[in-house]
Design a protein that fits this description.
mainly alpha; 7 helices
């Protein structure tokens, strides 16, 4: 069964929050809401209000559309591998660029 939009949105907010190195408490303070509300949103219990949504976008320093970038969250690892292999097979420059990035990260 596909995940609900609330759960996907919550996971995405949590993912971005973690990338920013923020705790739920810190994010809640920036958005000016109670910490449990961040938890409820991240766990997919409810949607953020419009005001909270705008606050999240500002607090996380992102474009609104980034909160709805669910592709990597809904695809299986096999789907991701296949998509990348198709792209690499079509574009050698892309393959070499991604390889350089990979080497920079793992070395």
């Amino acid at each position: 069964m596909a995940e609900s939009m609330k759960k996907l949105l919550g996971k995405r907010i949590k993912e971005i929050r973690n990338k920013r190195g923020l705790t739920q408490e810190q994010l809640a303070e920036r958005v000016e809401i109670n910490t449990p509300n961040i938890s409820y949103i991240e766990n997919g219990k409810f949607y953020p209000s419009y005001e909270t949504f705008v606050g999240l976008v500002h607090a996380l320093d992102i474009e609104p559309k980034e909160l709805f970038a669910f592709d990597s969250m809904t695809k299986t690892s096999e789907d991701l591998k296949n998509e990348m292999m198709d792209a690499f097979n079509k574009d050698e420059k892309l393959l070499r660029l991604i390889y350089k990035i990979y080497r920079a990260i793992v070395v």
